[in-house]
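Ticket #4471: structure export looks truncated?
Reporter: QA, pipeline team
Priority: medium

Steps to reproduce: submit the single chain below to the structure queue and open the exported record.
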Amino acid sequence: MSIMTNKGASSSFSTYQNKSFDVFLSFRYEDTGLGFTGHLYNALCQLGIHTFIDDNLPRGEQISAQLLETIESSMISIIIFSENYVFSTWCLDELVKIVECKKNGQLVQPVFYNVDPSEVRNQKGKFGEVFAKHEEKFKDNGKVQSWREALYEVANISGWHYKHNCSEFEFIQEIVKEISNSKSNRTPLFVATYPVGINYRVEAIKLLLDIGSNDVRVVGMYGPGGVGKTTIAKAVYNMIYAHFEGSSFLENVREKFGTFNGIIHLQETLLYEILGDINLKVGNIWRGINLIKERLCSKRILLILDDVDKLDQIEKLIGKCDFFSSGSRIIITTRDKHLLAYLGKGLSAYKVNELDDHEALELFSLHAFQTNKPKEDYTDFTNQVIRYAKGIPLALAIIGANLYGRNELEWKSTLDKYERIPNKEIQHILQISYEGLDETEQDIFLDIIY
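Actual output as written to the record:
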């Protein structure tokens, strides 16, 4: 059962219809509603974690469609197993729905409150007695079996066990800390102010990933600097990360590898984002490699390594990609197509092309005019920018933002300057890509950008 006692807001269910929640609490009100669960709810809310807890839903034999929708729309479900939890068929129906959502990527965490996890898992003692009564009441309609299976699955998850070896306050703070970390890791990434031209590219990557299959897949995205590889990777990440047990987006791998302890920092970030343990330190690179293999090999994960330019970077983060659990997906973005060839035949490569003229015009106009097409008096200027930027989204965005709000004279002066001296901001952002190319590739790169 769930309750909702959000102070300062209406407690009617209609207030929360069609809204998503960070956390859904499933519990037996008579056991913990006025004590432990109520305190947990308040602690989560005080930290800004949007939590569903409701005691005003109409009760009946069947769980309501509204509540089922709320469970579906929640990022995390916490089940508080207390002494009388399984007495409630309502709670057990919630549990079945939560397990269904778990298969679609919802994070599920059990709390064993004054009960033995093994008794819950194996349905022994009082839990076994209650299920015997349920079977007598519901006979052979399959409902009780679905409850048993759901209970067994959730009780096998490593959760929190309250054994009176600390205060409830300390116990609740531990839960809230871990939930806060989990929520941070499940927050979508910012993609772009104007994500023009990425939809069909994202769909192409999703087809290559085929997240419904149970193998391990690696997809490499390659293309020149500023073409939008990172933007597309972030959009893909947002669309699919909820389907995995853990996910991590490691941005600017090349740049961070060049900093002091950058490799170790990336290894620790990878472990933290997937495991949620902020205190896990790797010590040195070689221990980090082994820790990543040991801790992540049993999880179905999504990992994105962004802006990789050397095989060594991949090897020190994920080895040869041969230890990941079935269903895991790895995306690597790079400007170097040849680097992807080293990863073997199991990798699928996708070339990210520049925007076509229509897409370039729309993206530039959105930045320069806050509308999807240019003002009539600025058509010639706009065409000049489109020719200059050669379909590179980064160049179009920066130039458009720089020209926004300026008059025609300022446009002419600015564009004349671009023709003579490359924009410093564009030049700075793309410098990393440029420095890693050989001489021939640098010439091609300069032709594209300038």
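Status: closed, not a bug. The export was complete when the record was re-opened. Leaving a note from the reviewer for reference: The chain has three domains: 13-185, 199-351, 357-449.
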